[in-house]
Write the structure tokens for this entry.
Amino acid sequence: MDSSKIASKSRLPGFASVLLHVFVLWNLAFCARLYAVLEDEPVFFLGRRSGALDLPLFVLILSVMLPGLLAAVVWLAGRDTPS
């Protein structure tokens, strides 16, 4: 078998692929359940006297920033492993 074909098959996934996988898994496994709980209990935000920007910031941080940071960590860890 040609060594170039073997090398291309064992290549690490790119950042876009890692990012997509982490976003989907994070949002299905964590965010969907948390949003379902918060949907049933809106008192959480009322009790905290949340402002107009608190909910959009909460969603942005939870759904975009945290999985993006996690994807970066996973991708960097994959790059540092010896082959």
The CA atoms of residues 12 and 79 lie 8 Å apart. The mean pLDDT is 82. Helices lie at 3-9, 15-40, 43-47, 54-80.
